[in-house]
Amino acid sequence: MQLPKSGMVLINKPVGPTSHDIVARVRRLTGIKRIGHAGTLDPFASGLLIILIGREWTRRQAEFLNLSKTYETTIMFGATSNTDDITGIITPSLNPKEVQLEDIKICLDSHCKTYAQMPPSFSAKKIKGKKAYELAREGIQPDLKPKEITIHSLELLLYTWPRLSFRTTVSSGTYIRALARDIGNHLSCGAYCETLSRTAIGDYTLADALTLETPNRPT
Fold it and tell me: Which of 12, 83, 160, 182 has the most CB atoms less than 10 A away?
């Protein structure tokens, strides 16, 4: 695969590797060290990743980071996760009742707003120089602060208890797995993010992305 020595490349990240793994792969393919990305995707997530190659483009990272993001996700009701996603320790809720479709619609509408979202404990947020997930893995509750984010839209795609699939466009810095957690709390049944795919960043879409043959991250 031919990649530019300088420029922006849209990559379709598969489930498994980290965003850093994809950057490392592009470094090997191009021989260029100055490479970055504009918006992390967790290993369990797939979809659009903007890769910036060369000094000129990596200097523009903030420009791309600040763009809105669109995701398609499936969340699982009736349980919670310590990571707010499928990779964590899953704890079933006590006697969860099936949520009616009308209540789901009302809940989604109520979350289309600007509010202070609490980041997941297992996140890359820095607390006194240490990442939150490093503290969480040590059994220490990280002292995280809520961050103002905006949910621009929430479109219900499919609902069959206990799974809900929806498409959402959000501001930069929004955690979809935290949104899943918040929806579960709102409906008093618990929820976590089961699958996640980023389909757009600003006007850049997954349909225009390249696929790299990237092996899964070693376990």
Answer: 83
